[in-house]
Amino acid sequence: MREKIAFIGGGNMASAIIDGLLGQGRAAADFLVVEPYAPAREALLARGLACRETAGPELGDAALCVLATKPQVLREACAQVGRHLAADAAVVSIAAGVELASLSGWLGGHARIVRAMPNTPAKVGLGMTGLYATAACGPAERARVDALFAAVGERIWTDSEAMIDAVTAVTGSGPGYVFHFMAALEKGAEELGFSPADARRLAVSAFRGAAALAASETAPLTELQDRVTSKGGTTYAALSHMRAAGVAPAIVQAVREAERRARELSAG
């Protein structure tokens, strides 16, 4: 049974997944990386990973092939991959805005394809990946893909390809929203007299702690908010200002704008 995993592109997300799998006990010999950029390829080779400049017949040994190139070169990469891929291999694309129909055509009609939308916290094992599989992907293929992304965090399978755009808007882009809020909290701390280093520590700690607490609870997030809000207190004063400024509706609208843009990209 073939268990080798091929990565087309050896950038940050591919490296994060490989690191996660190595941390779970997978051997370096289980991976093949196709990376045209020489410095990146040399760095991968230095880690003991098999790495090639272009896709070749060795791709036929892969049970999983992860398309991790930049979207603008994905079509060309698929043309190379499709010539060598085993018919029963599963292909996973992490390229935003590229639909399954296009991927299948570029791969020469390959049917076992999964669209994935991971996010950058995968680099520290705390990612969230949205997944959607074609009907040709059976339980075995889905299990392999699920295990792939389990190495870097949580997974959510969607019932339609369109929902991948929604995942992109919420968690794919989500770290950007959080960093935006964190930067504002950091600035507020600096204006209260904290050094830049301490302001950053305070902002990061607030988010890390609140996220861990929310993950440990099943209560609605609004209830968790109420637990730390005493009427007339400091949190109440801050949240009253945010409500008056329309912060929450602005965030909701921002998510909708991100989803709209993701749909535009998917439509070409």
Write a compact overview of the structure shown.
The chain has 268 residues and is an alpha/beta fold.
Short key terms for the protein model shown above:
single chain; proline biosynthesis; cytoplasm; 51% helix; alpha/beta; 8-stranded mixed sheet
On the 0-100 scale, what is the average pLDDT? 94
Radius of gyration: 21 Å
Major beta sheet summary: 8 strands, mixed
Strand proportion: 5-15%
Question: Percentage of helical residues?
Answer: 40-55%
Q: How is the largest sheet built, in terms of strand order?
A: 3-2-1-4-5-6-7-8
How many alpha or pi helices?
11
Poorly predicted runs: none
Element string (H = helix, E = strand): EHEHEEHEHEEHEHHHHHH
Function: Catalyzes the reduction of 1-pyrroline-5-carboxylate (PCA) to L-proline.
EC number: 1.5.1.2
Pathway: Amino-acid biosynthesis; L-proline biosynthesis; L-proline from L-glutamate 5-semialdehyde: step 1/1
Subcellular location: Cytoplasm
Any overview of this molecule?
The chain has an eight-stranded mixed β-sheet with strand order 3-2-1-4-5-6-7-8, sandwiched between helices. The chain contains eleven helices and eight strands. The chain is 51% helix and 15% strand. The model has no long low-confidence stretch (mean pLDDT 94). The chain is elongated, with a radius of gyration of 21 Å. It is an alpha/beta fold and 268 residues long. Pathway: Amino-acid biosynthesis; L-proline biosynthesis; L-proline from L-glutamate 5-semialdehyde: step 1/1. It is found in: Cytoplasm. Residues 4-97 form the Pyrroline-5-carboxylate reductase catalytic N-terminal domain.
